[in-house]
Q: What sequence folds into this?
């Protein structure tokens, strides 16, 4: 299970929680990622509007580097936007020798498009990987009602991205069910989050996000899981603002935290909010996941399997008996909730008993 | 020395527009053995034919070349013309300078040079033509009709009324096909069952018609006038000779299954008649669901049957009979929209139904007794969205063609809904409204007056929200996105070829077009014939049609059968393959390649090299051979030759082309 890794520009910035949580889950299931040397930005929609050649050349260059330096490895990327760009270049080159020559001339490198490109969601949804994930679960999510939100970049255009089902995808739902959540059925799983229009066309674009929240809420979702850094940012960052508007209109505000699917998988494996980056969200997300992984009455047990050997917060000597239930970090740790966010942490989550180890984790 | 006449046709401006006919005539005069070359504005016309006949006499011609349209168009016309002359009808070559030359070129110089080449080749070939003669084959005056829908029934009735015996093979337990499932028929709104079931009864009681239901064609061999057909009559587990059709068995059967006839909206028993007016009016047992047949329990129908007609030991019956002609009327099926249209829920929403399901909902003898209610909760929908062209005119997801009937039955559904639910709202999403037909456009206008709101645009997505089905779409006339919150959505789905088309097509040697419909021999001039002699098409198996067109085509097919049966013998094709026994080495390559099973290996004893030798050689059955020529290519020793297309003739054509 080894992939050439294309992190994308958001991996160490806005999407850091995706990186942290994917690293955590990957470490637990033995996923090996080797970063493509000298990879560059995929170009995203900015390249597309600048020039068609540029939007081909940027992703093709990174793929060509992967082919050259990491031969035989398929490419994996966490970001849905990067996925769409890489797939677009790969699809174009695979159309024929003329197209391949065109791209090779642009990037001045050979590129045969032999390697497949997968999103992290596709990587984790493979049956053998899902099996690995299942074997690492400790607490599970105890029926947390999750709306799986795929966004548009993973699924469209269908003939380019070749994602499982462009209209009613199921892979994230299955992973959530696997982690013990209840994957709710809803209608907006592939609707657009507004992408960069949230900045350039805020008035219309906010409405797109609000509709996504509204449909998730109407179908009983407690949380939204997503697989795209921009989707998460747009929902997470705007929830407070949208709630303010709703309240001004006399409508009920939402209280739906947004998670990367890897954060929820990691939590179900016993990872702490800090390890997974859940503490870095704009809309408070720790309390809900804390509650989900702590079935009441909770039976606190030590967990060792969840922590990397080199991790500073690994317990020194813990029993290896399985299965185990490990509570998450306590919610007392400093968080950074958005200013106008309502008090989020439900009382029972705060009251969860915590072990000494868990406290240690939280204190890190 | 042959005496060749060459006649170049202008075809009005069809040929003369791109080909300098005078230059072609001039060139033809210089070709070997050409005695006369001339041109004509319309060679196929009476005066055109007359001038050729006169030239034959005047110049004592013994063979001719006509440079005109495709031989598929007028070769037969000119062969018939030659019957009145001293020349054998097969001493004729057609140079196709229209479809393969003038129509595809714009440049007069290039077109003219190519036309000269084509005429030169035909002249070289005609020089090696030999007179060919047809033989006669007897005609078995019994017809087989495959499919018992409205087209099959109409064809069977017409053939039977003409006095010939007919067998109808129907795959379902009853005659009637799709038409009998419909509620009303556009544009006159007469009840479909009221006009269809009398036809079913007529077929069932006609002295010249044998009905075989729950049956399919297993195997077909032979040729026009002499088809050997094996029919599999599937086990019904009910003896139709003793069953009176009282229906007692059906009332007491404990097993309920989703009804195919009601499109899954109602239920039937495991022993059942699909609907009340079924013909034959007797039940069959569904072996897959019968408790007795699946787990050897129950058997209540057997105990109750007053005539002891139930026979659980019944088996499929195979019969082989000879027919002179076959009418294929296997109809269509509706496209599997669930698999293609995930954006419409892909079948997840039970209130998104197909048009055929709506027909059952609105039908007085349907599962809801004609009350339009939602399948999910039985409530009356107050807002209905009708979406047309689901799978039609959609090359990305469905088929590129128009299914022809949907605009009209879509309007009919809107009209029926508004009639039954007067306070209801009905939205029809459409791409275009196509209503050519007698009284059709008036019907569409009336539906609009009824209050149906027509929105020009497609629906991009349907999803459930608060108990409503939200249809997101576009109104392209106002250039805005629209959303309709509907209680029920009716999808007017595309017609696609029936499942049996694939198997039957290859069994009967009937080709299929790009959309996999069975192909007629000519789209305009031979719309009911196929390229296999004695096999005719009726109804939607040839392409989407409404009921009037299906009935018209069925009667046309019946007429073709009656014409065939009006003779006792049939002239066979003269241009067939023949094997030279002295060259044949008996390898059998021709036997394997022949698509019509026309070639067999035979043992012959013959004198070779001054002694008697007994060995295997191939023999061509002149009745079966269609003259395709595949065997001549497969034959390594060169023993097989196609009359009218001999190896020598083709080599002469190539030589003529290569002379520069």
A:
């Amino acid at each position: 299970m080894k992939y050439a890794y294309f992190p994308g520009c958001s991996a160490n910035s806005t999407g850091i929680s995706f990186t942290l949580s994917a690293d955590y889950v990957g470490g637990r299931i033995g996923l090996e990622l080797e970063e493509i040397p000298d990879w560059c930005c995929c170009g995203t929609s900015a390249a597309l509007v600048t020039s068609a050649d540029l939007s081909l050349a940027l992703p093709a260059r990174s793929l060509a580097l992967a082919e050259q330096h990491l031969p035989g490895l398929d490419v994996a990327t966490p970001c849905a936007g990067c996925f769409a760009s890489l797939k677009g270049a790969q699809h174009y080159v695979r159309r024929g020798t003329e197209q391949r020559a065109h791209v090779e001339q642009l990037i001045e490198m050979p590129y045969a498009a032999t390697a497949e490109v997968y999103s992290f969601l596709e990587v984790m949804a493979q049956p053998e990987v899902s099996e690995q994930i299942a074997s690492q679960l400790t607490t599970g999510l105890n029926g947390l009602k999750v709306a799986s939100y795929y966004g548009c970049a993973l699924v469209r255009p269908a003939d380019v991205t070749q994602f499982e089902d462009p209209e009613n995808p199921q892979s994230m739902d299955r992973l959530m069910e696997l982690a013990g959540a209840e994957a709710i059925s809803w209608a907006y799983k592939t609707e657009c989050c507004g992408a960069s229009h949230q900045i350039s066309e805020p008035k219309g674009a906010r409405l797109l996000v609000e509709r996504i929240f509204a449909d998730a809420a109407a179908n009983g979702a407690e949380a939204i899981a997503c697989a795209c850094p921009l989707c998460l940012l747009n929902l997470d960052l705007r929830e407070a603002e949208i709630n303010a508007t709703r309240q001004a209109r006399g409508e009920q505000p939402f209280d739906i935290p947004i998670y990367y699917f890897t954060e929820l998988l990691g939590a179900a494996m016993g990872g702490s909010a800090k390890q997974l980056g859940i503490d870095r969200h704009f809309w408070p997300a720790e309390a809900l996941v804390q509650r989900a992984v702590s079935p009441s009455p909770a039976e606190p047990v030590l967990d060792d399997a969840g922590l990397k050997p080199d991790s500073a917060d690994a317990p020194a000597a813990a029993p290896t008996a399985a299965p185990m239930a490990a509570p998450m970090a306590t919610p007392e740790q400093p968080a950074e909730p958005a200013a106008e966010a309502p008090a989020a942490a439900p009382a029972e989550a705060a009251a969860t008993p915590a072990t000494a180890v868990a406290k240690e984790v939280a204190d890190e | 020395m042959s005496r060749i006449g060459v006649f170049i046709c202008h075809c009005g401006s069809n040929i003369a527009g791109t080909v300098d006919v005078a230059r072609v005539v001039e060139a033809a005069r210089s070709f070997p053995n050409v005695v006369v070359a001339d041109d004509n504005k319309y060679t196929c016309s009476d005066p055109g034919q007359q001038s050729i006949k006169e030239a034959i006499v005047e110049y004592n011609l013994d063979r001719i070349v006509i440079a005109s349209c495709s031989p598929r168009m007028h070769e037969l016309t000119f062969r018939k013309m030659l019957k009145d002359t001293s020349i054998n009808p097969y001493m004729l070559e057609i140079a196709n300078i229209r479809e393969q030359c003038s129509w595809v070129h714009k440049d007069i110089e290039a077109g003219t040079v190519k036309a000269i080449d084509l005429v030169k080749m035909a002249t070289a070939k005609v020089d090696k033509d030999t007179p060919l003669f047809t033989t006669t084959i007897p005609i078995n005056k019994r017809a087989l009709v495959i499919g018992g829908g409205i087209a099959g029934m109409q064809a069977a009735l017409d053939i039977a009324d003409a006095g010939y015996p007919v067998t109808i093979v129907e795959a379902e337990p009853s005659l009637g096909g799709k038409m009998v499932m419909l509620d009303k028929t556009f544009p006159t709104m007469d009840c479909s069952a009221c006009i269809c079931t009398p036809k079913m009864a007529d077929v069932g009681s006609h002295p010249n018609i044998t009905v075989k239901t729950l049956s399919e064609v297993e195997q077909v061999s032979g040729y026009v006038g002499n088809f050997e057909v094996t029919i599999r009559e599937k086990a019904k587990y009910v003896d139709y000779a003793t069953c009176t059709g009282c229906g007692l068995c059906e009332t007491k059967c404990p097993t309920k299954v989703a009804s195919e006839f009601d499109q899954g909206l109602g239920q039937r028993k495991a022993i059942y008649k699909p609907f009340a007016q079924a013909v034959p009016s007797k039940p069959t047992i569904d072996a897959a669901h019968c408790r007795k047949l699946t787990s050897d329990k129950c058997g209540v129908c057997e105990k109750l049957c007053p005539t002891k007609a139930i026979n659980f030991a019944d088996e499929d019956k195979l019969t082989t009979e000879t027919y002179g002609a076959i009418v294929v009327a296997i109809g269509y099926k509706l496209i599997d929209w669930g698999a293609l249209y995930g954006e419409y829920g892909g079948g997840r929403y039970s209130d998104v139904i197909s048009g055929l399901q709506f027909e059952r909902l609105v039908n007085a003898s349907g599962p809801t007794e004609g009350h339009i209610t939602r399948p999910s909760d039985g409530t009356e929908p107050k807002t209905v969205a009708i979406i047309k062209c689901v799978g039609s005119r959609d090359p990305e997801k469905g088929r590129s063609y128009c299914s022809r009937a949907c605009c009209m039955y879509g309007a009919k559904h809107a009209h029926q809904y508004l009639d039954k639910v007067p306070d209801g709202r009905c939205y029809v999403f459409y791409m275009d409204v196509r209503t050519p037909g007698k009284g059709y456009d008036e019907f569409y206008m009336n539906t609009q007056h009824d209050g149906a709101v027509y929105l020009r645009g497609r629906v991009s997505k349907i999803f459930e929200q608060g108990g409503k089905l939200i249809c997101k779409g576009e109104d392209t006339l106002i250039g805005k996105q629209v959303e309709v919150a509907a209680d029920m959505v009716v999808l007017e789905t595309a017609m696609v070829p029936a499942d049996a088309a694939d198997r039957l097509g290859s069994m009967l040697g009937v080709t299929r077009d790009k959309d996999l419909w069975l192909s007629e021999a000519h789209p305009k001039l031979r719309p009911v014939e196929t390229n296999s002699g004695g096999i005719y098409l009726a109804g939607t198996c040839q392409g989407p049609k409404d009921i009037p067109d299906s009935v018209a085509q069925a009667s046309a097919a019946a007429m073709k059968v009656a014409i065939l049966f009006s003779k006792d013998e049939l002239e066979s094709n003269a241009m067939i393959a023949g094997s030279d026994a002295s060259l044949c080495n008996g390898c059998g390559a021709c036997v394997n390649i022949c698509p019509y099973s026309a070639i067999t290996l035979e043992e012959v004893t013959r004198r070779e090299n001054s002694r008697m030798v007994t060995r295997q050689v191939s023999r061509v059955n002149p009745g079966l051979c269609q003259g395709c020529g595949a065997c001549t290519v497969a034959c390594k020793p060169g023993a097989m030759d196609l009359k009218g297309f001999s190896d020598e003739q083709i080599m002469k054509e190539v030589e003529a082309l290569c002379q520069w």
About this structure: The CA atoms of residues 599 and 620 of chain B lie 5 Å apart.
